[in-house]
Structure formats: C-alpha cells, structure tokens
Amino acid sequence: MEIVTVLRDGDQRLTRWMAAWDSDWARRCLPPVEEAAEHTKLWWAAAVVMAAGGGWRGRKAAVAGITSMAAAELLSNGVVKQLVERRRPPKEWIPHDDVEDRPDSSSFPSGHTAAAVAFTAAVTLSWPWVGAACAVPGVLVAVERVHSGAHYPSDVAAGAAIGLTTAALVQAAPHLLIRLKTTRG
Hints:
Layout: H1 2-19, H2 24-37, H3 41-53, H4 55-83, H5 111-126, H6 128-147, H7 153-184
C-alpha cells in the first residue's frame, strides 16, 4: 500500500508544479494548443494536409492516424472513463483561470492525450518524419492537460498508454485478419 501512497503523492506534487508554471511560453502556447486539440480538430487538420499533399503515403498515414485516434477515443472516453471515477485536480491547486473550463467527466484517463498519442504513433509507423512533426503538438497537448488542471499526470500517462496500444492494434489488425482468414480457410 505504501507504493500507492508514494505514487499518489508524486502525482499530486507534479500536478501542482505543472499547473503553477507562469511563463510567457505557457501563457502563449498552451491555450491555443488546447483549442486546436478540442474535438480533435488539430489531428483532423493534419490528416487532411497529409492526404492532400502526401500522395499515397500521406493518405495511408492519414487513415492510420484517424483510425487509431478514433479507437483511442472510444476506448478512453467511451469505456475507461465510464469504469473509473476520478475527480479532477482540486481547483485550489490551479493558480490561473483555465481551471474554470474543465469538463465534468472523470479525470482518468486523458482522452485528449489518448487521441494525440494514437494519431501520432500511427502516423509515425506509416510516415516517420511526419509522425515526428506530429509529436511536438502531441506532447504540448499532454502538458496542457495537466497545466490547465484538467488532469493529473497519471491520467495523461494512461491516455498515452491507450494511444500507443490502439496505434499498435490498428497497425496489426490487417495482418491479424489475413492470418485469421488463412487459418480458417
């Protein structure tokens, strides 16, 4: 039980520390990132740009990214959030106005982070340098979720794990379906 206490205390300390960042960088960069990531607008826009300008490889990466993102959102928001009730970080821990815009749903896991990581990981598997470019806003989304008081770092870590898992499953699905078909046929 002691390890759970240590992890919870560390999660709380890291939340307070990240929420207290009061730099020009945080004030200028994080709110637009949150706005762009809301309703996955950022990832849809990236997919459109890839599909329109990247030829066959861009279309493949865009489809993989959107498919993985959708699966991650379904798993994180449609399943896990319904099973795990976790309150958002207390408002008094968050020393800025972003705390008023938090959702009422369970804090665990971060659906924004799950979507960002799933999209980025799937794109990286199809088109590595574009995936690396997507990683920058993906990391900023994760940081913003803690900075704004919407999530604990452990919520973000769980969302990232869901994102990585769904990207791997989406990548493996065609091969698994072919294998299943050949073993049955």
